[in-house]
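Structure tokens please, single chain.
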Amino acid sequence: MGRAGHRRHAIALLAHAHVRPLVEAECRDVREAAERVALTAEGSHADAEAIHDYRVALRRLRTLLAAAASLFKRRPLRRVRDGLRALAHTAGAVRDEEVLVETLTELELPSATRAHVDAWLEGRTPRERKLRRAVIAHLSHGAPRAKEPVAQAEPAVQPELAAKREESAMSAMPTAQEGPAVQPELAAQGEESAMPTVQAGPAVQSELAAQGELAAKAELANQAEPMAQPELAAQRESAEPVAQAEPAAQLELAARVAGAPLPEAVVAARPPPLGRLLSLVEALPLRKRAAAVSTRALAIGALQGAAGKAIEEAAREDADTPEGRHRLRIRWKRVRYTGERFGKVLAREGVDAGAVAVLVKTATRMQKKLGELHDIDEAIGSVARARALSRGDRMVVHHRLRVRRKALAERLAAELPAALDLLRGEPPQG
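Here you go.
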């Protein structure tokens, strides 16, 4: 091999020479998925997987940038990662609506309750369309600047305490006041409600219990059936919190759902339009030290780092809460995507390809199971806040979801320890 051949071989071993094409490929996937999302505006194009695929493409790109963070200058990298995260949060609100429909549609319910739930889901369609328009606006950054702040946005984005109050209220509701058709479900729900649903400290538990009693009394004192208050119910539905969204994203989504102008601070904090953001990603400047990072070292370090963070997440005190499980799911997702992206290069470098494949397969399985659990947890919260549904319907749906969740949690508990042991095993070595 001549001098030029040796030089080409040396460059090929450098991590940045391997990562650049991967980044460009991920950016192409994001662009293609975004085009599909744009076609779904106002329901003009049926593509049930567009938002899901767009979020997956964003997550894969973000995972790659996190794995290769040591190669790029910090400030430009932070800017694009913040922008991609904001886009992902906005798209996540739409996906949550889609998953809610899927989760409740698959649920076996009595015919009357099914009709009421389907009508409630249909009533949420305007909300989903507004959230989808927010995604489209982020793709093009075409939203007008606000002329005045949205004073009503703050209450709309209060976090999960409201959902917990509603859920506590449902658990405290007496079953005797419901019709005979609902009695069997409510009796079973009474047994289910005895099980703790949130792992909170004693002070928090006592506060939630007190709030639950007050909410239950208020519910019983209200003689008007929720279904007879469509306008009020619609207003409450539109104020439903956007889970996992950051403050700026929460304010923007709340403003869009309410049909209000965007606050100046939100407009100023918005990321660049998607096309510009992806161009910045593709042109990220390298650090000087990038010339000393080999592909092998980067790949092994990225996979070990992703595995280590998953282990740390599983060891947290709140790991068994819905929030903890959701974070663990994200960690497993990172293990999966990192293994998929760097598996071939690791095999070329002498790492056991079979071990990496098993790790990716395990991570995919854990991600799926934790995802199903998260979807049910989100559905439980949404149904608890559904004032457009009667108390009886809410409790029937709540019970069915709890039964399904219990079965999923038991299967997960049986498989998770072995999966974590796999992560704790000897790291890949050449």
